Amino acid sequence: MDSRIPRLRRKLARIPYMPNRSHSFGEERHEFRLGPRLPSARVDVFEAEHDVELPQAYRDYLTNMSGSGASPYYGLIPLEACALFTMNPKAPDRVTRGFRRAYRPTHDGDLFLHVIERGCSDLVLVGVSGPLTGRMLIGNADGFWGPNVSSAPDFLAWYERWLDHMAAGLDNPALLLTSPRLHAHPNRYRPASKT
Q1: 159-194: string of b/e by CB count within 10 Å (b at 16+)?
Q2: What is the pTM of this model?
């Protein structure tokens, strides 16, 4: 088990659910409560069925903390309802990039798992293959706005940043859960400049 899990549990326990509080969009759905943990065997089955290996920090969260419930926005999606996506190729006439569903195991492009419900066509994803493996992204399936890659190194760091902001009473726009571009791979994921 990742050593951060007990600290995350303590931090979450200190954040009460308060109906109609303005600073946690979606909290009325999860009420800052955790769902049951997942057995490792259940995660193994998911990985085998989808031909992926989940990032260790996300897997540790599922098996040692919760398989659903409290998270940014509307909450953590139960693993069996998570879907794989690939990032759309860069189109010459678009500045932003969307995502398309990967309906079967595929090695056509980097894979991302939709793990948190944000609403409409907005996606909160964790990279499961390629250079962004383990990193958190927030994007729009239709490409209405470009994907933002979190500066947090993994799911647990990203989740802890959310807990810290909730404890401080910050609104979601102030969460700073994403960064403008991924500095480690600026040419691959940065939108092309307009001419």
Answers
A1: bbbbbebbeeeeebeebebbeebbeeeeeebeeeee
A2: 0.84
